[in-house]
Amino acid sequence: MEADFFTSYVVYCITKQLMKKSNKLTVYIVIAMIAGAILGYFIHESKDQATIDGFAKNVKLLTTIFLRLVQMIIAPLVFTTLVVGIAKLGDIKTVGRVGGKALLWFLSASLISLLIGLVLVNLLKPGAGLDLTVGDSSGVKDLMGKTQSFSVINFVEHVFPKSMFEAMATNEILQIVIFSIFFGVAAAAIGEPAKGFIKALDTVAHIILKMVGYVMNFAPLGVFGAIAAVIASKGLTVFIFYGKYLLYFLIGIGTLWAVLLGVGYLILRNRVPSLLKHISTPLVIAFSTTSSEAVFPKLTEELERFGCKDKIVSFILPLGYSFNLDGSMMYMTFASMAIAQAYGIHLDIGTQLTMLVVLMLTSKGIAGVPRASLVVVTATCAMFNIPPEGIALILPIDHFCDMFRTATNVLGNSLATTAVSKWEGELTEPQQV
After folding, report:
1. Most confident option among 217-221, 279-283, 284-288, 346-350
2. Which residues have a Cβ under 8 Å from the Cβ of 318 and sit 6 or more positions away?
3. Predicted confidence band at 90 (pLDDT cuts at 50, 70, 90)?
4. Inter-axis angle of helices 391-423 and 296-306, to 10 degrees?
5. Architecture of domain 2-423
6. How many CB atoms lie within 10 A of CB 251?
7. What is the residue-wise DSSP string for 273-331?
């Protein structure tokens, strides 16, 4: 039912705004999704495996082009907007106050997300019905390779940069955020002498935001490639094959959406529908491409159009991408416990709560790692003596789960940004969508 609600909402937004010029992108994206699914299914049903593999590999180039264009502007966008945002906040006390409110939201949302996943997986027991003989082991060795180097030392190295240029070259968002915070606070402390440089950075930020519009024109091609490739490779039977696991996960996502929107309503009141209307395009892009990075520039623009001040958006949103991945957090406890259930491993409540704390700590700052949720799940399984090879059980449908958790991450960060804006008295009337 929750999945039907999500789909119905997206269709409602698209239908209502179909004739509006500013929403043509959303319409084109949905058309691309449908066309990609049809073509992918045709290839899957009509061609041999060699043709399917070749088609999937080639059509995914469209998605690669789109994502690389987005990644091209992520680092300069985060640096310029965050530095300008901190400088505009003024004194360090203001920066600390806003950061404290953001941290309060991030920790609370992470804890709630993890608990929802933990409670539901214990009630519904999705792993109890999984067939251990069925699983796509492709990619497991690569995933295990990444996990073996997952340690406190590497976590620290991932968070704290040794070179700003290296961080920007590799798109290490959290490292860029750390450097930008220090840079912005120092610029705010200097005061008047730094105003000229901050004004120049502000101009650069606006230029990059203009580039966002150009890059987003490639979004339908990226969506088409992503959908066509996965349907061609897996076919529609993957939904039936893992139906129960996916259904229970969607119940969890629906529950999380209900909680997030409920809290959002307590803070924003009747402006929640307007927020959903503004972020409908980023939600569809995130859902289709399973990439949070792909919607970062567009989400920045839409939140400012909703009424959030640029200084709040440019400060909170980059932090949220590293510390506030609500959909991914819910999935981590859900998947870890499902694998344990599939292997018949019983974990008492104390062990499960310990796992929850471990996941809350180890999941921070890995947003830039491909398939980050699976990396953390695999590492956690190994830590609690759950066969990490069990990740092969969920790999075949991880793409579809990733669609929903990525869209949920976008919703969570949007609510976090608007909530802090409201608490700071910086939320104005929205512009027309």
Report:
1. 279-283
2. 78, 81, 82, 173, 176, 177, 180
3. low
4. 30
5. Orthogonal Bundle (1.10)
6. 18
7. HHHHHHTHHHHHHHHHH--SGGGHHHHHHHHHHHTB-HHHHHHHHHHHHHH--HHHHHH
End-to-end CA distance of the chain: 28
Q: What band does 104 get if pLDDT is binned at 50, 70 and 90?
A: confident
Q: What is the pLDDT of residue 5?
A: 42
CA triple 376-132-52, angle to 5 deg: 80
User: What's the pLDDT tens digit per position in 395-429?
Assistant: 667 778 888 988 998 999 999 999 988 888 877 87
How much of the chain is in helix, strand and coil states, percent to nearest 5? Answer: 85, 0, 15
Distance from CA of residue 147 to its chain's centroid? 20
CA–CA gap between residue 172 and residue 167 (Å, rounded):
5
Residue 43, SS3? helix
Q: Give the total residue count for the chain.
A: 433
Structure tokens at 5: 């609600």
* Predicted structure pTM score: 0.67
In the chain, domain spans: 2-423
Cα-flanking dihedrals φ and ψ of residue 46, to 5°? -105, -15
Residue-level pLDDT at 388: 66
Q: Bigger pLDDT: 426 or 264? A: 264
Q: Is 43 exposed, middle or buried (0-12, 13-18, 19+ CB in 10 A)?
A: buried
User: What does the alpha-carbon distance between residue 50 and residue 56 come to, in Å, rounded to a whole number?
Assistant: 10
Given a contact cutoff of 8 angstroms between Cβ atoms, the answer to whether 335 and 370 are in contact is no
